[in-house]
Amino acid sequence: MNHIVIIGAGYAGLTAALRLSRKAGPSTSITLLNPSGTFVERIRLHEDAAGRGPRRHVIARWLEGTRVKFVERRVDRVDTVKREVFAGDQRLPYDALVLATGSMTDTSFPGVAQHALTVERFGALPKTGSVVIVGGGLTAIELATELKEASPAREVMLVSRGGFMTGFSPAAQTYTRTVLQRLGVACREHTAVERVEAHVLHTASGPIPFDACMWTAGFRASPLPAGLELPLNAQGRVKVDAFQRATPEVWVIGDAAEVDGRYPVPMGCKAAAPAAASAVDNLLRVQKGAPLQPFDYFAAGYCVSLGRREGFVQLAREDGSLQGAVIRGRVGAFVKELICRFTLWSLWLEKNGLSNYAAFKPRQPPSLPSKATA
């Protein structure tokens, strides 16, 4: 295996490239493709929307001193028979292909693509007037508190089909509602949205006018490059085995993958780096003919920001449920900020051979097969 091509330079793709550069043999070439030369801190997109400044980083700087060839091109298609990737005027052969194409807001709901904004494309939000945020998960909550704290004169309303923070402990939900009330965020739970039109959100309870609508009700994997016919789940994530392979030559990591594992692997940067590290190590085991090891991931908890001054950390129990202890207030906000910064530090650690992903492994040994080979 001499040519490894990675498509996508987000948290997963960049981690995979840096790890391969360190661990692969000198005869292995590594090519990283991305349509932009900029790495985006997706974990901070809600901060960007509130006008706190974009968090962008030049990818080439992360790759300085490595063996990775960076190609700033959008992939046009993949020929899986000839094992070639076509991107503009580039024609790249591969022996192994790593897909790290990430995720995006699902805008397939009626009217969303035409009349709503997302965390990926939000433009200039009004500092006054009304902003309606549709969704009841982490993105919606972080976005609502960030927007309201940044511009108190702005009217912010959360609209969710179900309750807010479903799956989190009662303590975390109560604290979140307390902060939302304190900031002055209006909340409409258990409100079914029917469609979005220009400046009005139609719900089963009646129309809700707005100056801007932010849609956070669901994410899906980014579309695959043309030529890749792989099994997908309802979110567009590629169904991969326990070792993160879709086929013997195609590996899928990060938000683009649904892993056949003991615990579900959530979308987000917390799982991206461990997934990339596991896939790279297995890819190198293939080269050596060594047994593969399953990617067995466990999320120890979630960190949630509620503006710049408050937040919480929800710890998970051993069964994966988010019903453990809650660390809240300024301490919770401090821990969340540390985690955000650590997503960048982890790239530096990976580049310098100091990474360690033991914290993301379950305490009990995996129940998946661990002696499979390519």
TrEMBL record:
Record carries keyword Oxidoreductase: yes
Signal peptide start-end: none
Superkingdom assignment: Bacteria
Molecular function GO terms recorded: NAD(P)H dehydrogenase (quinone) activity
Protein name in UniProt: NADH-quinone oxidoreductase subunit L
Cofactor: FAD
GO biological process, one term: aerobic electron transport chain
Pfam families: Pyr_redox_2
InterPro entries: FAD/NAD-bd_sf (IPR036188), FAD/NAD-binding_dom (IPR023753), NADH-Q_oxidoreductase (IPR051169)
Source species taxonomy: Bacteria, Pseudomonadati, Myxococcota, Myxococcia, Myxococcales
Residues annotated as domain FAD/NAD(P)-binding: 3-272
Keyword terms, alphabetized: FAD, Flavoprotein, Oxidoreductase
Annotated family: Belongs to the NADH dehydrogenase family.
